[in-house]
Amino acid sequence: MANATHLLSLFILIQLNCVALSSHGHGHGNATASFCRPDQAASLVQLKQSFIFDYSTTTLPSWQTGTDCCLWEGIGCDDGGGRVTVLDLGGCGLYSYSCHAALFNLTSLRYLDLSMNDFGGSRIPASGFQRLSKLTHLNLSYSGFYGQVPIAIGKLKSLISLDLSSRKNIAPDETMHTYGIVDGYNFLVLREPSLETLVANLTNLRELYLDMVDISSSGEEWCSGLGEAVPHLQVLSMADCQLQGPIHSSLSSLRSLTVINLENNGDVSGVVPEFLADFRNLSVLRLSFNDLSGWFPERIFQLKNIRFLDVSNNRLSGDLPEFSNGTSLETLNLYNNDFSGMIKPGSFSNLLSLKELALDGRGVGAIFLMD
């Protein structure tokens, strides 16, 4: 009787394991099994055939005709319908001469990550993205695209996260300034549509990464419409974007911001706005290598959640504060400004999380670099 009970228990355990194995795919697979639709698999196979795998970290071996594409590497499907909702090839080192049109047949996609691959310096597709109307996450960063960011991306009203950050171009062509390749950098550009036009309908956006996208055509109005267009924004990263002029007061309404990165723009000028001190969730503020001047708001130093504060290489002035208990600062970089005042004994004793400190300036008593 004991043997019979043991065998029954073992049979049940095996059955449970089989159910568990059949319900878990690769990448961002779902909790219930879903055999993919033939048209979805066919589009993915076409996409695979457009890649060259000479320097890739994967050859996508699971992407085989006749098998369930919902179980393929980097693929996730909806519950029961067999439609691809996730395509995550980020960091695979794939190479292609262009973005294959088969991608846009995957109209149920919600998550698309093609970052850190190489699309051969091809232009970002002018049309096709409008078909991916369910997208909530789009990441095309560091993928070798150049040219005008298409207005089709601005029509993806469900987007929560958008990352179009560009990268250095391996073989720069100085004659291609018009198309976004300048001084050795491979740029996407925002001219028509402008930044304001691109984000006008992206009201659900929480994260916006546009590092090294050329936004110079917006002039000093580069951020004038952001506060109204993306009211729930939490991350704003626009480093190396050739921005000009002051930080517009319309940003004052973005009280949910946790990250602001405007470094290396050179011509961002004017004062550091006092309203930034009202962003209680702010954890990262990067404003280095700009033309900011005037008195730095001391209240920003006192933000409880600020971890990374870098305003180096500007023309700012101010007094070093007595830091309060509970400050979360890990990096404080005020280098190459005009901060003044003597460093008092114990001034930084409350900065228990501090890992890096860089100070110099008129009248400051010391320069520190700490790791």
Question: Would you write up a description of this structure?
Answer:
The chain is α/β, with parallel strands linked by helices and 371 residues long. The protein has a domain of 95 residues: Leucine-rich repeat, LRR (right-handed beta-alpha superhelix), CATH 3.80.10.10. Helices cover 11% and strands 18% of the residues. It has four helices and 22 strands. It has a twelve-stranded mixed beta sheet, with no helix packed on it. Strand 8 and strand 9 form a beta hairpin. The N terminus and C terminus are likely disordered.
Distance between the termini: 67 Å
Strand content: 15-25%
- Return the string of H and E elements: HHEEEEEEEEEEHEHEEEEEEEEEEE
Q: By CATH's scheme, which homologous superfamily of one domain applies?
A: Ribonuclease Inhibitor
**Total of DSSP H or I helical runs spanning 4+ residues:** 4
Low-confidence stretches: 1-32, 168-185, 365-371
Question: What radius of gyration results from the CA coordinates?
Answer: 25 Å
Strand count, sense and barrel status of the largest sheet are: 12 strands, mixed
User: What is the count of β-strands?
Assistant: 22
Per CATH, the class of one domain reads Alpha Beta
For the largest sheet, list the strands in their spatial order: 1-2-3-4-6-11-12-14-16-18-20-22
Query: What name does the CATH topology of one domain carry?
Result: Leucine-rich repeat, LRR (right-handed beta-alpha superhelix)
